[in-house]
Structures are given as structure tokens and as C-alpha cells.
Amino acid sequence: MKKRILVAPLNWGLGHATRSIPIINALIYNDFEPIIASDGVALTLLRKEFPHLAYFELPSYNVTYAKKGRFFKLKILKDSPKLLKAIKAEKKAIDNFLEKNYVCGIISDNRLGVRSKKVPSVFITHQLNVLSGNTTWLSTKIHQKIIKKFDVCWVPDTDSAINLSGKLGHVKSFDIPTIYIGPLSRLTKHHCEIKNDILILISGPEPQRTLLEEKLLFEFKRYKGNIVFVKGIMEQQQTMKIVGNMVIYNFMTSDLLERTINESALVISRSGYTTVMDLAKLNKKAFFIPTPGQFEQEYLAKRLTEIGLVASCKQNDFNLNELNKVAVYSGLNTINFEVNYKNLFSLFQRK
């Protein structure tokens, strides 16, 4: 019997799910049998990518953002009792699942309750520091306390001076064993003809996903070039429609997204860390619009702008004139990092 590994990405936008794809593929290649555990759009996406794999639906965190960025932290604090209840529920669900199913390891991407003392449990995060403004010290302390309940922490970045996550993924010391596994991306760079002037990629919790979608659809009515617009809405069937100079999709699976990014001159998107890793892998020019009030995305956009890689602006400030900034930025670059998955997965070979 193959060793079965539970892979559980957080359902918070699509980033945690998509960066789990190379992990799942590596498990399959190394003769493990992954079981997918998540909820909502994250689970829907992974079931489309891996229809042959078993899956397990976890309780939902039901995370939503405030309509105004300045209320982001307040909204998260208000929702914290509901969040804690969901974490407790998923921990109970995992315990029940392990009682009835053979599993020899757990890989949790930011799902705080998906762990067990019975099997080796891995936590994947790029946030050893959790930015939250003047409460960063507290949010970081709480997050690190939770991570310490796992056996090991995998950080999808390098531990060198050249890295993507900056101070998010790098701390002076951390008590739990921490392994930098290099940037994760499901995508591969191909040299091909550029067919699209702009690719717009949107994802993330509501209502901010819809607010950005509406703003960009309005702004780009006046744009003369070719646009592909991906809304990041996971539905049963992929849809595509043409509106003026735009080709609009509800979502794209990996193969189509990989081809479309490779064929696009510029990508406009949120500055989520998974998006940063994907675009760096493909050496793309980008323009970032961070989710209002989300400190992590605001930090990443600001950092990448300050070091001359990517243009960015606040959501309320975006208009077509902002794209004039793009020319002076070099674009994101690949960080060469070879992952030894055999060594990484040796944790799960325990008897």
C-alpha cells in the first residue's frame, strides 16, 4: 500500500491551493498517495486539477474582508471567535478522519487545525512574521505559537539574500525546525509569441474581489489593446465570453493559465505571495494592486516596487495612466532553487 499524505491548503483566495499543486505532483512522483483536504473554491480547483485523487471536505473558515481597507483588521478581529470555532472544528474533523483512515503524514498550508500527534505534520507558510500594523508583534507571536504545534515548517522561499518574501519569511531565530523549500509554482516558462497586451488575474475573498473586478472592467473599457480577464470565480464549468477587446473567463485551470501568462506582455493582479512566485517563475512584467488593508500584500507590492521590479498602486488610485509606470520596472525574475523532494518527504517514511 502506498503511503497516504493528507494535503490541506487554506481556502483564502486561490493561492494556497495553487501552490499546493507542485507539492501534490511531487508526492505522486515519489510514490505517495495524496488525499486532498480543503473546502470551497480551493477544494473545487484541486478536484479539477486532480480528479483521480480522493478528497476530504473540511469545515470552512468563512473569511470575508471589509469593504473599506481601513476596517480590515477590525473585521478580522470581529470574526476571530468564528475563526477559532472553525479551527477547532477542523481539528476534530482531522482526528475523526485519522481514526477511520490510514494516513502517514499531513501537509497543511496555513490550515491551523490540520495536524496530529499521531503522524508527522508539516506547516507551510511564507509568513513567519505576520504583518498587522502596530499589532505585528502580537499577530506574529500568536502565529508562531500555532506553528510550533507542528513537527516542521516549510517556507516556500530561499534563505539567501535574494528572496521573494522579504521580512515576511525571514526571522533571526525560530524554535521549530524550519526548511526553506524554494518558491513554489505550478507553472513553467515557455518562449512563445506574445498575443495579449494585458492579462488581468483576480482572486481572493469577497467583497474585495468583486470591487476590483468592477473597477477594472470599467477602467479597461477605454483600453485599445488585447485583454484577457480572469475573474477567479471557481464554478462547475469554465466559461468564456468576448466583450469588446476583452476575453473574459470565470477561471482557468493550470495548463490554460500557464499558456496565457506566457503569451501576455503584462499581468495585472493582486500582490498575493503565490502570484509573486508564479510570475517570478515566468519572468513576467507585472502591475500589482494589493487588497486594501491586507498588510502582507501591501508590503509585498511596496517592497517589489522599491527594489525596481514591479509597478503598483492602491486600488482606489488605479486608472489607465498608472500603466505608464510599467516601462521603468524590470519585471520579476526566476530564483533558481532545486528542491530535493526525496529528502523533504523522508519525514513521512517513519515506521
Mean pLDDT, as a whole number? 91
Radius of gyration: 20 Å
Q: What composes the largest sheet? A: 7 strands, parallel
Number of strands: 14
CATH topology annotation of the largest domain: Rossmann fold
Low-confidence runs (pLDDT<50, min 5 residues)?
Answer: none
Distance between the termini: 14 Å
Number of domains: 2
CATH class of the largest domain: Alpha Beta
Strand order of the largest sheet: 3-2-1-4-5-6-7
The geometry reads as globular
Q: CATH superfamily of the largest domain, called what? A: Glycogen Phosphorylase B
Please, could you describe this protein's structure?
This protein folds into two domains: 3-183 and 338-349, Rossmann fold (3-Layer(aba) Sandwich); 196-328, Rossmann fold, CATH 3.40.50. It is α/β, with parallel strands linked by helices and 351 residues long. The two termini are 14 Å apart. The strands form two sheets. A seven-stranded parallel beta sheet has the order 3-2-1-4-5-6-7, with helices on one face. Strands 10-11-9-8-12-13-14 form a seven-stranded mixed beta sheet. It has helices at residues 15-29, 40-49, 72-100, 136-147, 208-219, 254-262, 273-281, 295-306, 341-344, and strands spanning 3-9, 32-38, 55-57, 105-109, 121-124, 152-155, 178-180, 196-201, 227-230, 240-243, 246-249, 264-269, 285-288, 311-312. It contains nine helices and 14 strands.
